[in-house]
């Protein structure tokens, strides 16, 4: 894994995205983020909590869109934060924008991710 940020989220890159996200056993929630993105910073502690609380059911990682343009373009990410869930190597759910923890958990449950 490339690195772990202060929020406890693993950071992935273009180089290891396939291994860390697409080949996993569990669904993987990916935050497409950027250092300059205020809503991304607001969302980071929410995702850190979810990563810890749902660790057995869901892996949570982040990828910086500016440093990893290949993956960003491949999945058509145009805004940050974009949250995307991958299951069995395929994107199965996506939303754009920060949200409260309860709302995000509800959306993930509603989508059958959790």
UniProtKB/TrEMBL annotation:
One of its GO terms (molecular function) is protein-disulfide reductase activity. InterPro entries: Thioredoxin, Thioredoxin-like_sf, Thioredoxin_CS, Thioredoxin_domain. CDD domains: TRX_family. Pfam families: Thioredoxin. Keywords: Disulfide bond, Electron transport, Redox-active center, Transport. SUPFAM superfamilies: Thioredoxin-like. Disulfide bonds join 37-40. GO terms for biological process: cell redox homeostasis. GO terms for cellular component: cytosol. Residues 1-113 form the Thioredoxin domain. PANTHER family: GEO12009P1. Belongs to the thioredoxin family. This is Thioredoxin. It comes from Streptomyces spectabilis.
């Amino acid at each position: 894994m490339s690195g772990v940020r202060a929020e406890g989220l693993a950071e992935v890159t273009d180089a290891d995205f396939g291994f860390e996200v697409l080949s996993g056993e569990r669904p993987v929630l990916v935050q497409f983020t950027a250092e300059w993105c205020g809503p991304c910073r607001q969302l980071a502690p929410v995702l850190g909590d979810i990563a810890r609380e749902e660790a057995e059911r869901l892996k949570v990682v982040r990828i910086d869109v500016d440093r990893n343009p290949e993956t960003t373009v491949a999945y058509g990410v145009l805004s940050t934060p974009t949250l995307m869930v991958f299951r069995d190597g395929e994107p199965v759910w996506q939303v754009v924008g920060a949200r409260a923890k309860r709302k995000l958990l509800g959306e993930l449950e509603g989508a059958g991710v959790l």
